[in-house]
Design brief:
mainly alpha; 4 helices; disordered N terminus
Length: 185
């Protein structure tokens, strides 16, 4: 038995595996570097088999490395775009905060001082914020809708329309599908 090589297979117990063996030089150089010292003593079919297996293994290693590099470039591009998005959101939030401060008549500060929360007194529940009676929608202002609804109810006397005026929709659905049925599940 030959030392380091068993037939056309590489003996990894005798020679350590080189991680980048297939990435240096052209394919002919890679195949020649992988040949054992006793390669000339082998028969021609064994030499061809060893060269073919080395070529296939090197091709797979190179394809895997190219795929990994391509995926890594893709990930880098996405990471850059993600960081750009985070930076733009931060700048947009800062501009909105400064505009709100300006509208409220407060002094506009680009970089407000950091609040040390350990020095603040504990929350005792004394501050209560008024909550609107309706679920707030960014499309419909609940206060103006409530005023319009009150004026419509005063004109029409229709109390089934609800806070946002869905009474006509409910009547239309009942005229199509009938009254609500119990759930079947």
């Amino acid at each position: 038995m030959q030392s380091g090589y068993i037939g056309s297979a590489f003996d990894y117990a005798h020679h350590p595996y080189d991680l980048y063996w297939a990435h240096t030089g052209n394919m002919g150089q890679v195949i020649e570097q992988r040949r054992p010292p006793t390669f000339g003593d082998w028969s021609e079919p064994n030499q061809m088999l060893f060269d073919q297996q080395t070529y296939m293994g090197a091709s797979m290693e190179r394809a895997l490395k190219q795929s990994y590099d391509r995926q890594e470039q893709w990930n880098q591009a996405h990471m850059y775009a993600h960081h750009e998005e985070m930076n733009n959101r931060y700048l947009d939030d800062r501009q909105r905060r400064m505009l709100d401060q300006w509208h409220a008549g407060q002094p506009v500060v680009a970089h407000p001082p950091i609040v040390d929360y350990s020095t603040l007194p504990p929350y005792d529940g004394s501050v209560t914020y008024s909550t609107p009676p309706l679920h707030h929608s960014q499309w419909v202002d609940p206060h103006t809708m409530g005023n319009q609804q009150a004026s419509q109810e005063g004109d029409q006397g229709n109390s089934s329309s609800g806070a946002f005026g869905f009474g006509g929709f409910a009547e239309m659905m009942m005229s199509i599908f009938g009254p609500p049925q119990p759930k079947y599940y």
